[in-house]
Design brief:
Elements lengths: L5 H8 L4 E4 L2 E4 L6 E4 L5 H12 L3 E4 L4 H13 L3 E4 L9 H13 L4 E4 L14 H35 L6 E8 H5 L5 H20 L5 E8 L14 E5 L2 E5 L3 H10 L8 H12 L10 E4 L4
Parallel strand pairs: 3-4, 3-6, 4-5, 6-7, 7-8, 8-11
Antiparallel strand pairs: 1-2, 9-10
Helix pairs in contact: 2-3, 2-9, 4-5, 5-7
């Protein structure tokens, strides 16, 4: 397995490469870092992948479908960044090996992991099947756990190499939760349970990986305007692993939610991604084990 040399460590610890914009120097704060983002072909994940790349990170882009992931990679490269595709379901057997392996084989390291992929499959408890419950646990909790487990050996070895070289590189994990997990939501006992467990996973890992200088945090979203939360009274479906999953929220329900938000609207994918980016930047290096809700004040 490749290890950091003293010179490459120095490159990461020193101020990053700069680019000139309108006569001013812009520091790319994540130059030399390697970021992995699940569910990055659309919505929040896409916005985050672009932000990470714009800050200089090399990004491994995952999406359930190959075309959206490849589109994001093309966009990053067009903007002068570095990126690689790892498409497929995060719940597939062997996905974690393939995902982390793509980062190590292509870019040689793992610095940032964002577990963002997911969807909802709602029903009140008396109508919910075990398959529905298990699907939410698998995609929102087990898949992130598997990715972190697969990355653990590389992180352990590299952090020790860096310490021996006389430096410290703080790696980042951001697990995505939801206010359904922190506060509960009717009709989402499966999703809420998985998203609540994500908070526990993050806090456990912040203690377990602190010795490796890994900061692990959770971001829980409220109403963010994506295809999953589109206001619609039409029946819209997406296909996920052979299942037709309803998406969208009744117009009346969205209106009621927005009325309760002090900002008076849902957040944009770019605003949601910005909150995640905060935990990826060097300014947050000593913040770990924390949960922030991104709700517009709800």
């Amino acid at each position: 397995m490749p290890t950091e040399t003293s010179s490459s460590l120095a490159m990461l610890l020193l101020p990053s490469n700069n680019e000139t914009q309108k006569g001013k120097l812009k520091v790319k704060k994540l130059e030399g870092r390697v970021a992995l983002v699940t569910g990055a072909g659309r919505g929040i994940g896409r916005a985050l992948a672009l932000k990470l790349a714009d800050e200089g990170a090399s990004v491994v882009v995952n999406d359930l479908d190959a075309e959206p992931a490849e589109s994001v990679v093309r966009e990053i490269k067009t903007r002068g960044g570095r990126a690689a595709v790892c498409s497929g379901s995060v719940t597939d057997s062997g996905f974690a090996d393939r995902f982390v392996g793509t980062a190590l084989d292509t870019f040689g390291d793992v610095h940032i992991i964002v577990n963002n992929a997911g969807y909802t499959w709602d029903a009140v408890i008396q109508k919910m099947t075990e398959e529905q419950f298990d699907a939410m646990i698998d995609v929102h909790l087990k898949a992130p756990w598997q990715i972190l487990q697969r990355a653990s050996e590389a992180i352990r070895i590299k952090s020790k190499d860096e310490a021996r070289a006389g430096g410290e590189i703080v790696r980042k994990v951001v697990n995505i939760s939801s206010v359904a997990g922190t506060r509960g939501n009717a009709g989402q006992s499966n999703y809420a349970s998985a998203k609540a467990a994500v908070v526990g996973l993050s806090r456990a890992m912040s203690k377990e990986w602190g010795r490796y200088k890994v900061a692990v945090n959770t971001v829980a979203f409220g109403l963010i305007e994506t295809r999953l939360t589109e206001a619609t009274d039409e029946k819209k479906l997406i296909e996920v692993e052979g299942h037709a999953i309803p998406v969208g929220v009744p117009v009346q329900d969205i209106a009621a939610t927005k009325a309760a938000i002090p900002f008076g609207r849902g957040g944009t994918p770019e605003e949601a991604a910005g909150a995640v980016l905060l935990f990826c930047l060097p300014e947050s290096d000593y913040i770990s084990g924390q949960l922030i809700e991104v709700t517009g004040g709800l």
